[in-house]
């Protein structure tokens, strides 16, 4: 379940009822980016992520994570869809802007680590996002696939360094965006034709080869919202649903129709798109 900001009492009642009746303990997520106000209307708003970055004080990023974690946990949240560790290279980008720690990769790395530390000390799992990195392009992945056009070497020195540092800090989950990284897709699979390069949420090269094998991430990988056009443009939904798991994602975020998407996933298993080994791993 993903919570949008609601009165704290309503969240508590909802989450407690669900957890009492769930056969498997539920993951309760929220966009805890600016403070506890990301889940509870009464929660503290520390400020936009860029305001925190403007202090250039790593401790403020730690305190942001701490407040997000403590206040989220107080109403039953155990998963923060944060921190955003995108790098705001393009001021026209409609996703990143004030939601990021800015355009300096070193500051994004330092503050991303501190947020992860603060939120996870509070018993709430961090989700570093949006892999392989938004902020280069000016397109909105809600509406179309976006592109991280950096070379492999430039990506390694910027986004790659930020992700590696947060992974080494112990970030428990990664959210994968509907973002292409053509340079790495081609390097990791030289046989790919241009029209076969896919956004990360559907890309075996980017999720399994780059994130899991090269960067060594061994936690949970979740797609960004699967209803975004950025994920649906590449192929019919009947193919995209199982392909996301086959690519290496462990969880599929949101559905358009629960019954329909479940049938697509089941058919993907029966057709061998998702192997039994990959299914069990996920």
TrEMBL record:
Q: This chain belongs to which protein, by name?
A: beta-N-acetylhexosaminidase
InterPro entries with a match to the protein in the record: GH, Glyco_hydro_3_AS, Glyco_hydro_3_N, Glyco_hydro_3_N_sf, NagZ_Beta-hexosaminidase
List the taxonomic lineage: Bacteria, Bacillati, Bacillota, Bacilli, Bacillales
- Output the GO biological process annotations, alphabetical, semicolon-separated: carbohydrate metabolic process; peptidoglycan turnover
Keyword terms of this UniProt record: Glycosidase, Hydrolase
The EC code for this enzyme is: 3.2.1.52
Which family does the similarity line name?
A: Belongs to the glycosyl hydrolase 3 family.
Q: Which reaction does it catalyse?
A: Hydrolysis of terminal non-reducing N-acetyl-D-hexosamine residues in N-acetyl-beta-D-hexosaminides
